[in-house]
Amino acid sequence: MQSGGLTRHMRTHTGEKPFSCQTCGNCFMHSSDLTVHMRTHTGEKPFSCKTCGKCFTQSGELTVHMRTHTGEKPFSCKTCGKCFSVSGHLTVHMRTHTGEKPYSCKTCGKCFTQSGKLTVHMRTHTGEKPFSCKTCGKCFRMSGHLTGHMRTHTGEKPFSCKTCGKCFMQSCDLTVHMRTHTGEKPYSCKTCGKCFRTSGHLTRHMRTHTDPSQRQT
């Protein structure tokens, strides 16, 4: 190993970060890391996709992006064979096989496979709802919930049934609707065995066992 390479390697042991950002003070072990960091301040994105023109701050980001065009998925699961375009996605997927949930809630102890899921879960404790509707002001814990809500204003129904053409605002509504075609009833009563298409229908049915006034005469 050359002296320069050894010097850089030693920083992994000493923790030395001699390259500092004059804008925010953040420090880095390598000058190349500082160069990349500076782009967060300058907005420079020197790596562009020749297919769609999208630009990136790092060459690695462009490499990953190109797979959305080529369909390349070089990271495969040795257990089930499923393939992924990003190594991080494979790492998360492997937890479905191992059962590993490395991110735990310090409030209630619930564990998660992804840090993002823990972040969303924490909002159930803090009450934080960072995503707000610019039309009516209603707030949501998840960006996806806001996206679904916005359709109540726009009327957009992007999920369509391939059997009858009926359209829905949310994918879960389409899933339930499809059961009218397939006859699937995945929710069963543990008391009498009767099956239902939706969990809500099962909940109402269960009251016929616990509340005599709910029973049909």
UniProtKB/TrEMBL annotation:
It is found in: Nucleus. GO terms for molecular function: DNA-binding transcription factor activity, RNA polymerase II-specific; RNA polymerase II cis-regulatory region sequence-specific DNA binding; zinc ion binding. The keyword Zinc applies. It comes from the Eukaryota. Residues 1-18, 19-46, 47-74, 75-102, 103-130, 131-158, 159-186, 187-214 form the C2H2-type domain. Its main location: nucleus. Keywords: DNA-binding, Metal-binding, Nucleus, Repeat, Transcription, Transcription regulation, Zinc, Zinc-finger. GO terms for cellular component: nucleus. May be involved in transcriptional regulation. Belongs to the krueppel C2H2-type zinc-finger protein family. This is Gastrula zinc finger protein XlCGF17.1-like. It comes from Parambassis ranga (Indian glassy fish). The gene is LOC114449987.
